[in-house]
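step: validate -> pass
step: tokenize input -> pass
step: predict -> running
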Amino acid sequence: MSVVGSVALVIVALGLAMTAWVQVRPLRRHRMLLDTLAILPEWRFYAQASLGTAEDFARDVHVLMRTRDAGDRVGGWTPVLWPPERRLTDAVWNARGRIDAMILSLAEDMAQQHRGAPGADVQQSIPYLVVLRRVMAEATPGPDVARQFAVAHAIGRGERRWSVEFVSAWHR
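step: predict -> pass
step: emit ->
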């Protein structure tokens, strides 16, 4: 065996030994001291809590929209990006879901970064403009309708509670 082969074998064996060592439960709290770069995987084959007892485990992101007509009457919130019914073939390939998933991801990032009182710069950010473009593409009853969107979380399973994370300005 060559020197390079021996060195590679030692590195692989050392990596496997360290990975197995990380899995030992009593040593986990010392892991951060030894693995500051977080390159050793920590495998979890079982859930940490059951889905029934972990209320905040299920947290789905939704983009909602409402309209305001020329008479300043504000409509109710309606879903813009809502998971559609999936076909059987979507389990293998779902190209149309990729764009919506990207927009939802941008909306969630924007809501987390600009929670509370967003500054004026948020309306010039790429995530805001992408979500706004998607909202403006929705059909409306008339041309003089202003739109507003919100990013909300549906939290929990069964009876879900809603948390509105971000509300946009009105746009025409």
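step: describe -> The longest strand covers residues 59-68.
step: cleanup -> pass
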